[in-house]
Amino acid sequence: MMEKKIKMGIVGAGTWGRTHAYIYREHSNAEPVAICDMNRERAQAIADEFGIKEVYTDYHEMAEKADIDAVAIVTPDFAHADIACCFADHKRHLLIEKPLATTREDAERIVEAVKRNGVRCMVDLHNRWNAPFNTCKQLIEAGKLGDPYTAYIRHSDIKWCATDLLPWAAKSSILWFLGSHSLDTLRWLFNDEVKRVYAVKREGILKAEGIDTPDIYLSTIEFEHGGIAHMENGWVTPNGNGNVNDFRFSIMGTEGMVNLNLSNHDLITFADQEKIMVPDILVSNFVFGKCKGLSYESIRDFIDRMVDGQEFRVTLEDSRKTCIAILAIIESAEKGIPVEVTY
Ligand SMILES: NC(=O)c1ccc[n+]([C@@H]2O[C@H](COP(=O)([O-])OP(=O)(O)OC[C@H]3O[C@@H](n4cnc5c(N)ncnc54)[C@H](O)[C@@H]3O)[C@@H](O)[C@H]2O)c1
């Protein structure tokens, strides 16, 4: 029997569009068929590298003409909704990079278009595939922690991400870029919805460098069934930090506790004449040329679920609720008051 191939399109040929291309080339049930970027050179470069035949600069044209089953939307955080709605209207399934959207209106528009067209949609909130977090989830599900009671998560980036990596950082924030992962992880581990948030932010370091976005948010999260968490997301960790991500987590239940340190985990370090570094072995690494790490696993899982028809491990409702709760955090930090989350 012929193996089923999911024909994939990619919109957005930047850093993360390339990550997607790797998996669609490697996965035996996928095939990268078309790529679109408003910058033709960028799209052409990935097309050449990964053997993608069709190149577009206008996603409307790609939605009209490309023979694809699904599309990966890998454009900047604020530029997901129009593209998602267009492809849903052309009956294409969607894998949208996190966050789902950065406004309530955009999130609702996507949800409405997905439902109206009967297509499937997953948002790439990939921390659920992060092995230490996934093990923590398994321990919670096995009852080893009792009831999750309180947690702390710090998920921050070195400043370079905002100043150099992302040309659109000022049109997003660390809350969208990493906070969406943090909050999805907390919702997943507590198996609960955010009820109320109280957040503070500080700004000035990035603004002094001409990037108009907050430096850091500290958020207190209250869940509907009583769990509480502190969430820290900053874009100003010093560039000399050995790891791009500063990623710590602990969760305490009524019976047990899990602690994670994914930043300086002592599994591997590399030193040259100037500094010590922590090579990435968790997010996007290769073993004998094969894609490993959580960032590939979530995309691989999208293809697997497209083939077997089972529900995505991150549902559209997961990503919508994460988006709405992040908006409440932004509002709380802006007004300096606790905000009840209304879904
Ligand atoms: N899952 C993860 O942890 C992870 C990691 C990195 C990035 N991302 C997400 O992926 C998305 C893209 O990030 P990136 O780092 O690749 O950004 P990038 O700036 O490197 O690439 C974005 C590309 O989209 C193109 N683009 C923008 N608007 C377009 C449009 N209307 N039509 C066609 N092309 C368009 C730009 O020209 C650019 O080449 C973001 O939402 C980001 O948060 C997710």
UniProtKB/TrEMBL annotation:
Pfam families documented for this protein: GFO_IDH_MocA, GFO_IDH_MocA_C3
SUPFAM superfamilies: Glyceraldehyde-3-phosphate dehydrogenase-like, C-terminal domain, NAD(P)-binding Rossmann-fold domains
KW Hydrolase (keyword) present: no
Broadest EC class assigned to this enzyme: oxidoreductase
Upper classification of the organism: Bacteria, Bacillati, Bacillota, Clostridia, Eubacteriales
Gene Ontology molecular-function annotations: inositol 2-dehydrogenase (NAD+) activity; nucleotide binding
Keywords (A to Z) from UniProt: Oxidoreductase
InterPro entries listed in its UniProt record: Gfo/Idh/MocA-like_OxRdtase_N (IPR000683), Gfo/Idh/MocA_Oxidoreductases (IPR051450), GFO_IDH_MocA-like_dom (IPR055170), NAD(P)-bd_dom_sf (IPR036291)
Every Gfo/Idh/MocA-like oxidoreductase N-terminal domain range: 6-124
Entry EC number(s): 1.1.1.18
Residue intervals of the GFO/IDH/MocA-like oxidoreductase domain: 133-258
Superkingdom as given in the UniProt entry: Bacteria
Keyword GTP-binding: no
Protein name, as recorded: Myo-inositol 2-dehydrogenase
